[in-house]
Amino acid sequence: MSSEIIPILLSGGSGTRLWPLSRKDFPKQYLNLGEGSLTLIQKTQKRIERIGNIQSPIIICNEDHRFIVAEQMREIKVKPLSIILEPFGRNTAPAITLGALKALEYYEDPTLLVLSSDHEIDNNDLFINAVNIGKKYIKNDGLVTFGVKPTSAETGFGYIEAEEIMNYKDRKGYSISKFIEKPSLEDAQKFIKNKNYFWNSGIFLFKAKTIIKYIRKYSPDIYKYCEEALSDELLDLDFQRINAVAFKNCPNISLDYALMEKTSKGIVIPFTSQWKDLGSWNSVWETSKKDNNGNFTKGKVIAKNTKNSYLYSEGRLLVTLGLQNLIAVETSDAILITNKNNSQNVKDLVTSLKKENFKEGIEHQKTHRPWGNFTTLAKGDNWKLKKIFVSPKESLSLQMHYKRTEHWVIIEGRAKVIIDDKIYLINKNESIYIPKGSKHRLINEEESALIVIEIQSGIYLEEDDIVRFEDNYGRTK
Q: From the CB of residue 40, how many other CB atoms can be counted at a distance below 10 Å?
């Protein structure tokens, strides 16, 4: 039996409950929300490195985030086995099926460890022990999931009921009786008193051929359309694109609904480590390192007579006085202030922002690109001011604009600029003008970052006024 373990990292969520830091164009799994320098997806990958026979991961993400995923894996020196790009989300059952089919292209029948990329686990040893216990249950077509001992009556989590009362010291798995979606507070309070019930972590362990066999049996449409979606070799640099027409036909359904609730092969392995699905600001506060007053602070923050609060500032000074149980998050273009008890409702707030056409509900002022990023500093009807950050040895595309001119001022570094058939070397505190309709390119050939202030002027200033002729990242298609 094949002994390789392939991590399947699910990274397709939008994380709207953690607005304004998490938005559709840069969701929570790519954020660093607490101490240290790692983002949530980086922590997820680092968490599993000590598991025996672990291989490079297969990552399933939204195609709009492909360069963010690649860069964050590169930062921790990980080369994924594959990065599968979903044109749109279809929940966990199709995503896991895609990952299993892809894994079988590389290995005969590997073990798959399926992980969401937005979880926090405080004791990695306990988690690895639980995974090792789970290995013996997958030999005979077992489908293992992991249950977390509840510490509070949470209505934002799903629950698993085991067929017998669990003993955490037994180091064994238990047959699953049923799954419960996010319960009422009354039911959650009952569950926490019953040793048969566990938080559903959404982490799975099974053989690749086993999961495919049962998906074909219980959800044949998912298997059919996922296989069709991967049938064409739609490779784009290091990314695996899929057939959007086929994938659109996949039911939008979780693995619990598509399979786990229908089979008698489900096994739950308990683990007692502190685990959190970071689905609300309250859960982020709970997992954060707090001071003696119960406050987590990050950035330029002063908290006076403030208790049990999460206070985050990206730039401006954030001051609180005489408050408690507060979430206050400051970004360059939006500020959220809410009681912790209301943090589950932030998702509804973001829905309202979208309906009212507030771009802040979807986009950050900082936009990430494969070569670096740019931040919109200010704008008017016919002008826009940006700060452009170009990573060392990276280059923007050779491009042209029909409706705007640009003026670049070098703030840090040294730029190589191509305008039509001429090449210019522009140093710090120097500038250059790009006429409308000119083919141009901004290149950083140095070992340090290049920072440029860009002044745009014209009748139309949106990002779709770009015609690309050459690009290092395959964006001319």
A: 24
347 close to 16: Cβ distance less than 8 angstroms: yes
CA separation, residue 69 to residues 76, 282, 374 (Å): 11, 26, 18
Burial 8-36 (b: 16+ CB within 10 A, else e): bbbbbbbbbbbbbbbbbbbbbbbbebbee
Residue pLDDT, tens place only, 306-338:
999 999 999 999 999 999 999 999 999 999 999
**pLDDT tens, residue by residue, 248-265:** 999 999 999 999 999 999
Q: Which domains does the chain have, with CATH numbers?
A: 5-277 (3.90.550.10), 289-355 (no CATH), 366-470 (2.60.120.10)
The whole-number average pLDDT for the span 176-180 is 89
Average pLDDT over residues 257-278: 88
User: CA-CA distances (angstroms) from residue 454 to 377, 380, 442, 461?
Assistant: 10, 14, 11, 12
User: What is the C-alpha to C-alpha distance for residues 444 and 131, in angstroms, rounded to an integer?
Assistant: 45
d(CA 455, CA 233): 41
Sign of the Cα torsion 120, 126, 132, 135 reads negative
* Count of beta carbons in the 10 Å neighbourhood of residue 447: 8
Give the predicted TM-score (pTM) of the model: 0.89
Count CB neighbours of 217 within 10 A: 12
